[in-house]
Specification:
heterodimer, A: about 600 residues, Glucose Oxidase, domain 1, 3 domains, 9-stranded mixed β-sheet, 8-stranded mixed β-sheet, 25 strands, about 25% strand, globular, disordered N terminus, B: about 375 residues, about 15% helix
Chain lengths: ~600, ~375
């Protein structure tokens, strides 16, 4: 899958198992596609790379073979798009000027110091600009919306218009669990930057306080695919720079100020830092590249006049991680930098779309069927003409006959259609209503298109070079193709398009806070259980040290009950590094308790 | 839940298995290629095979506007389902008649209040309130035989009181069923009247009749719910479940179709019910909450009841109403393993050889604590 909740970081140091061609099942509909797409020659299919273009060539050839045509009004199967392939700091700098006449904006008779790059680092979403202005310290820079009825606003009583605000990273360290839980939700750096911008600040500086994890460190540039800045200059500064700015504050150190804020008391306020101004210059370099979505369609063979919404789309992303250089790789040390073959993720889904297309290409149909192989679902046709969308994201590693079908809540008709198709296909279906999951279905759900995503579960090779073609379960992948082809045929023949139903989103609003603790758990997404099912634990990690193991279901952490992955991510946000937390879990039907001591995550 | 936890803890002592893999592989000894058969609707269950093994008749809450079960026939080769009940009122427990195109089931649709009861239940559900699922033993329930060819429906029982849970003999000439008519055809004592209000199933007894509804005859006479009768594969005996008077403990019993030679097969100290014979004639499959009040699992026991029952399923929630296919190679059952509290129909390959091995290994039945 392409995107995962932030809590999930799986790192393993196992040796790579390189692909060995297995016995060739001549009758497999999908093996040849997966083996081609996941071969070394395609070099991991990184978006914008030569490998991606080769994979695209292969897909186009296959689409032509089954008689699929470029979308109406186009002559090419490829749809180019520009994207940000990566971000890096191109040389941001900061200087501090202090002296009595600073307030007038003139630096004269003052001391001035300039800081090197290790002391300042732009945040990935920063605008590129230079700002010189006095500094206002705004505590943790947290603003809880009025609608939350909580009453916490770091900007109360502060005038930050046209100033540089200095804020602490994270949220108050010593507040009670409930307060931390609420504040954590609004402590995401993007959210803090938005609050600073809305209060009129020209720039936001973030310092990791002496009392926080990763104290004094700057924040590594995160992978951010945003095409442009977020409307404010934003940078993280080192503890040294923070200290230097605080020299203008008489009688208080940064640590003392943080301590007073850490209780979570909303009445502790920030203050303007007198006799000092900073000049912050940010430079975020965004590497723009061109990627290619591929889309084709099998035209209806019978008139579409009798059907409402004459289009259906089948989609899968075909890109992968290349050599794993973009921060999403989970490769262990010994395999790092190797070709990430992406056989399951998502050569399997791409193969499924091609094979379903082939299966239906020879049969009469009342609807046009789009085959959409895309980097990111960019609906290739007018969405109000689209009756349904089927997505395939990692469908090659079925175990125990279990097929997960997600987003079933998007139409009341899915149950009937899925039931009929599955009586014949015979899967142990794991149905999940939720369309708000890290798959391309989310885009179509927002556009009120009934959608489904097929998924056969996570595994230890996820996002690692060892996700190779010889590990694919082709027999069951072919069954997924038959199942999806049966559903597609049903959709082709319906006079009325399936009605859309909106699933209420359960995730709390507000900005997502970055999870800063490391627990070493590997959640299993494929099974819907009450709690968080562990697909494994990382060797030597805090979870393993706490005695947790594969198959355990975490139901409570630090007194907060866990019913799903969102609860879990949310609970992690309020844990403290090095502070033992009680974890309740169910093993073999029996509730047990242990103590887990989270480590710091960089 | 406390009961459940204690029971599981005890089990762990008795059967120390190291990992979850070991547990699920236990289930896989008997059941492989598990598949979910029904998806549509709030719940489904009571799936029974057609004699040729190509179709399954079941009950499901999926009729638009009707919150109660209706009866559907599912074609296993096409996946198509067809409702065969009227769509009105409550129905339950269908069964194919061998050598015929008749299918019997219980229905309340002759009750003029049916629509009103549907509306009341819909209003209750719309209010967002919830209550435990329970079956109400509607006294207007009667047994009908529906003919698939003609679409005609013949009423087989008319007595006041719940008549349902019917099944045909292998030759299609007889029907065994459950009736609670004993609560209505005589004067009840004050205690019995109170009993009828709180739990009418107390009056449930096993009856037999001819396939045309004639010759209705009572076979059991013991206080407490006797129900869920089925003929064995050769038609020589009837297997059913007998509850104690309090309705908490039930065990599997068998008898001759004339009601004589009643034998207790299990003495499991739990709610053990829904027995159905494997067509080999070697064992019964049944459901029991031996491991926790709400955790029903499927067990099997040899047809003579000489051994301790062997556990089949290992999943949380409900597993029950097991019914082997006519060739004995598959089992259909009702399970809540896919999540939520409501059951859906499941199907799996059944390993008869492994079942026999496990039965051979099973210890002899322990003498009853009661006697």
């Amino acid at each position: 899958m392409k995107r995962r909740p932030a809590a999930v970081l799986v790192i393993s140091a196992a040796t790579a198992l390189w692909a060995q061609p297995g016995p060739r099942a001549l009758d497999s509909k999908t093996r040849v596609h997966v083996e081609a797409l996941a071969s070394d020659g395609f070099d991991g299919r990184l978006t914008g790379s030569a490998g991606e273009r080769l994979a695209g060539d292969y897909i186009v050839t296959q689409l032509q073979k089954i008689g699929a045509r470029p979308l109406p009004g186009r002559s090419d199967y490829r749809l180019p798009f520009e994207f940000t392939a990566g971000t890096r700091d191109g040389g941001s700098s900061i200087s501090i000027a202090s002296g009595p006449s600073v307030a007038s904006g003139v630096v004269s008779g003052s001391s001035q110091s300039s800081m090197s790059r290790t002391e300042v680092q732009a945040l990935s979403f920063s605008d590129n600009a230079e700002v010189t202005a006095p500094v206002v310290f705004a505590g943790y820079g947290l603003v809880v919306p009025d609608s939350q009825d909580f009453g916490y606003d770091s900007y109360t009583g502060l005038d930050v218009k046209d100033k540089v605000v200095l804020v602490l990273r994270y949220f108050p360290e010593d507040a009670d669990q409930k307060t931390r839980g609420i504040l954590a939700r609004y402590s995401d750096l993007r959210y803090k930057a938005m609050a600073a911008r809305q209060h009129g600040a020209k720039a936001m500086l973030v310092v990791t306080g002496p009392r926080s994890p990763n104290a004094g460190e700057t924040i590594p540039m995160s992978f951010d695919t945003a095409l442009a800045g977020s409307g404010i200059v934003a940078a993280s500064i080192s503890g040294n720079v923070g200290k230097a700015i605080f020299t203008g504050v008489s009688g208080k150190t940064l640590e003392e100020v943080q301590r007073s804020l850490d209780s979570g008391d909303p009445h502790v306020t920030g203050f303007a830092i007198p006799n000092l101004s900073v000049t912050i210059h940010t430079l975020v370099e965004r590497e723009k590249q061109t990627g290619y979505n591929i889309a084709a369609y099998l035209p209806a063979t019978m008139g579409t006049a009798s059907v409402a919404k004459p289009w259906i789309a089948l989609g899968a992303h075909y890109d992968h991680l290349g050599h794993g250089g973009n921060g999403l790789s989970l490769a262990g040390k010994e395999e790092a930098g190797g070709i990430h073959h992406g056989a399951d993720d998502n050569a399997s889904g791409t193969a499924a779309v091609l094979a379903v297309g082939e299966a239906i290409s020879t049969q009469p149909r009342h609807r046009n069927v789009v085959l959409d192989l895309a980097f990111a679902a960019r609906p290739p046709i007018v969405l109000d003409q689209l009756a349904a969308y089927l997505n395939f994201d990692m469908v090659g590693r079925m175990q125990d006959n279990k097929l997960t079908v997600q987003a079933t809540g998007t139409s009341p008709l899915w149950a009937k259609i899925i039931e009929q198709a599955n009586v014949v296909a015979g899967f142990d279906l794991q149905l999940q209503q939720d369309p708000y999951q890290p798959t391309d279905v989310a885009t179509f759900n927002e556009a009120s298109v009934p959608s489904l995503n097929f998924f056969t579960g996570t595994h230890a090779d996820y996002h690692r070079p060892s996700d190779t073609a010889n590990k694919i379960n082709y027999e069951d992948l072919d069954r997924v193709v038959d199942f999806a082809a049966a559903i597609t045929r049903r959709l082709e023949d319906l006079d009325q398009a399936p009605p859309f139903s909106k699933v209420q989103q359960t995730q709390p609003g507000g900005g997502r806070a970055g999870v800063r603790v490391f627990t070493g758990t590997i959640p299993d997404y494929s099974t819907e259980v009450k709690g968080l099912l562990l697909g494994g634990v990382m060797a030597g990690g805090p979870a393993e040290q706490a005695g947790l193991q594969k198959g355990d279901v975490i139901v409570e952490i630090a007194g907060q009950s866990i019913t799903n992955i969102y609860d879990y991510t949310y609970a992690l946000e309020v844990l403290k590094v090095g502070q033992p937390a009680k974890v309740a879990y169910v093993r073999l039907g029996e509730r047990k308790e242990t103590t887990l001591t989270p480590a710091a995550r960089k | 839940m406390q009961i459940l936890r204690t029971a599981l803890a005890l089990l762990l002592v008795v059967v120390p298995l190291a990992s979850q893999e070991a547990w699920s592989s236990h289930e896989r000894d008997f059941l492989t290629r598990i598949r979910r058969l029904t998806v549509e609707g709030r719940r489904a269950g009571e799936g029974y095979w057609s004699p040729d093994g190509k179709r399954i008749v079941f009950q499901s809450e999926r009729e638009p506007g009707n919150p109660f079960y209706q009866i559907y026939v599912l074609d296993l080769s096409s996946g198509e389902t067809k409702r065969i009940s009227s769509g009105l009122g409550k129905t339950t427990c269908a069964f194919f008649r061998p050598g015929s195109s008749d299918i019997l089931f219980g229905s309340t649709d002759a009750d003029p209040k049916s629509k009103q009861l549907q509306d009341e239940e819909n209003a209750f559900r719309a209010s967002g309130k919830e209550r435990r699922y329970s079956w109400d033993y509607d006294p207007e329930m009667d047994i009908y035989a529906y003919n698939e060819k003609t679409g005609a429906k013949k009423r087989l029982t008319t007595a006041r009181g719940y008549d349902a849970e019917g099944s045909y003999s292998p030759d299609g000439q007889w029907i065994v069923f459950t009736s609670m008519r004993d609560a209505y055809n005589r004067t009840l004592t004050e205690a019995e009247k109170k009993q009828l209000e709180t739990d009418p199933s107390y009056f449930g007894e096993i009856y037999i009749m001819r396939a045309d509804g004639s010759g209705q005859k009572r076979l059991t006479h013991v206080p407490g719910y006797d129900g869920g009768p089925f003929f064995t594969h050769d038609g020589t005996r009837v297997v059913w479940r007998r509850f104690d008077e309090k309705g908490l403990i039930a065990d599997v019993w068998t008898m001759k179709p004339d009601g004589t030679d009643q034998r207790q097969i299990t003495d499991f100290g739990a709610m053990s019910w829904a027995p159905y014979e494997h067509p080999s004639g070697d064992y019964f499959l049944f459901a029991s909450n031996k491991l926790g009040f709400e955790n029903f699992e499927i067990f099997m026991v040899d047809t003579a009841g000489t051994k301790e029952p062997v556990r089949i399923t290992y999943s949380d929630g409900f597993d029950g109403l097991p019914v082997p296919s006519p060739d004995g190679k598959m089992v259909a059952w009702t399970s809540s393993r896919s999540g939520g509290s409501a059951g859906q129909l499941f199907l799996a390959q059944w390993n008869h050889e492994k079942a026999l091995e496990a039965l051979n290994r099973a210890p002899l039945r322990k003498p009853s604590k009661k006697s």
